[in-house]
Amino acid sequence: MSQPDAIAPGAQASQTLTAVPRVGPGFRLQWEPAQSCFVLLYPEGMVKLNQSAGEIMKRCDGRRDTAAIVADLEAAFSTAGLEGDVLAFIGVAGAQRWLVWDVPT
Amino acid sequence: MSTIPALPSADAAPRPGPPLWLLAELTYRCPLHCVFCFNPLDFAKHADELGTDDWLRVLREGRELGAVQLGLSGGEPLLRDDLEVIVAEARRLGFYSNLLTSGVGLTPARARALKDAGLDHVQLSFQDSTREMNDFLSHTKTFELKGRVARIIKDQGWPMVMNVVLHRLNIDHVDRIIGMAHEFGAEYLELANTQYYSWAFLNRSQLLPTHEQLRRAEECTDRWRSQVGDRMRILFVAPDYHEGVVKKCVNGWGSTLLNVAPDGIALPCHTARMLPGMAFPSVRETSLREIWFESEGFRRYRGTGWMKEPCASCEHKERDLGGCRCQAWLLAHDAEAADPACRLSPHHGLVTAAVAQAAKTAPTEHPLVFRDAANSKRLSSPGPQSTPRACASRPPNA
């Protein structure tokens, strides 16, 4: 009997590491001085991003892949081991359509 | 000896955050004559519209205050031939711009120009899914046009939000309404039950659905949600008349929304100009900063300090902020009363009686009053109000 649930998360994570995320259509990411945070704007709505979400989202520029985003964040904040957190956030943001990416062929 | 009145708590009217939502009602002119419109009954008296430069200044002042969402509304905003100029400035300033339109006047060329100017999103309103009902309710031949407009919106790559105002005459068509939105590729569908102000209040006995109609509509909506999942998100806005529970009106008076009417009057909500004894400032004379932070009109019902019983001691007062001031005025003739739609209001019987009465009223007993300039002038002129001009036709499927 196959165990798809056991292998799927690992496969998904490696796929996501090579994915190149960008802000989803209809959404706009911008820094709001009045609120001192990044916000994500969409039709008639707004999400206030906390600092780490903002730092991840602003690097999702459609040019670098997730692995590069992780490396850049680890360098910027002089830390290591951010991969799990970044993958988790990108998964959540993808489900919300805040981020999209093409599945690599 | 008199009792000492309770002092308002120190945080009853806290200094508000920014007006995140700036709603620019660019004009009261409209090619449609919807019977549920929330524009004021006397809209025809306020025909002196702000000019382009005024609007551009309002946008700049709003953005400086921290506004991020811009609604371009009306009336029909496409009737302003400077809409592209306004949109371009909004984009330059960093607003997320939302055009709220009936779609009348949105040609492919105009859509392209608005896209080039930086318009972020179009919300298209429909009256119903059947052409007959749609044309009847909006009093024009618009249904086929809206189908075309929906395709124009998709062609420009805008996210499409469809909005359908529900009421007794169309709520039984909700299955076809949702099917139509799905067919047009809408990402979001707002099924908004009529709120009873202005023209809708005038036509309330015709428009209030029954409890049974609502129950069926919500069941139908849930079936569609389980079918289409995330491809189309469906928001069903339940009517407060039937629920007995009220919400923070416009997220709290003077907390989030700054509405500028076509003639420049700044309002904390779309309908607040109906309230008696309130002098709302005009953007022609007063800066948005002063309006938001200092004006009596915006401070009046901010927070909870203005409340009287039963709201003042209610455990839910922070959650609903007493509901809607306009509804309190319309139904209880007291703008400081608890919203009568709340089941804890001493006036709640007025609401339950209206729902019960509507259920017994045949749809053709009272003629609908269409929102047009002639009816507006008649309804807002002094003296005995003669019978408003009504549509001679009857609801086709009622």
Structural summary, described in words:
The complex is a heterodimer of chains A (105) and B (398). With 105 residues, chain A is of the alpha+beta class. Chain A is 44% helix and 18% strand. Chain A has four helices and five strands. In chain A, a hairpin with a 4-residue loop joins strand 2 and strand 3. The longest helix of chain A is centred in the first third of the chain and has 15 residues. Chain A is globular. Chain A starts with a helix and ends in a 5-residue tail after the last strand. In chain A, 22% of the residues are buried. Chain B is built from 16 helices and nine strands. Chain B has 398 residues and is of the alpha/beta class. A nine-stranded mixed sheet of chain B has the order 7-6-5-4-3-2-1-8-9. Helices cover 35% and strands 12% of the residues of chain B. The N terminus and C terminus of chain B are likely disordered. In chain B, helix 3 links the parallel strand 3 and strand 4. The interface between A and B is medium-sized, with 16 and 21 residues.
List the helices and strands and how they pair.
The complex is a heterodimer of chains A (105) and B (398).
Chain A: H1 4-18, E1 22-23, E2 28-32, E3 37-42, E4 45-48, H2 51-57, H3 66-76, H4 83-95, E5 99-100
Antiparallel strand pairs in A: 1-5, 2-3, 3-4
Chain B: E1 21-25, H1 52-65, E2 69-73, H2 83-93, E3 96-101, H3 108-117, E4 121-126, H4 131-138, H5 143-155, E5 160-166, H6 174-183, E6 188-193, H7 198-202, H8 204-207, H9 211-228, E7 233-237, H10 240-243, E8 257-260, E9 266-267, H11 288-293, H12 296-299, H13 317-320, H14 325-332, H15 348-360, H16 373-380
Parallel strand pairs in B: 1-2, 1-8, 2-3, 3-4, 4-5, 5-6, 6-7
Antiparallel strand pairs in B: 8-9
Helix pairs in contact in B: 1-2, 2-3, 6-9
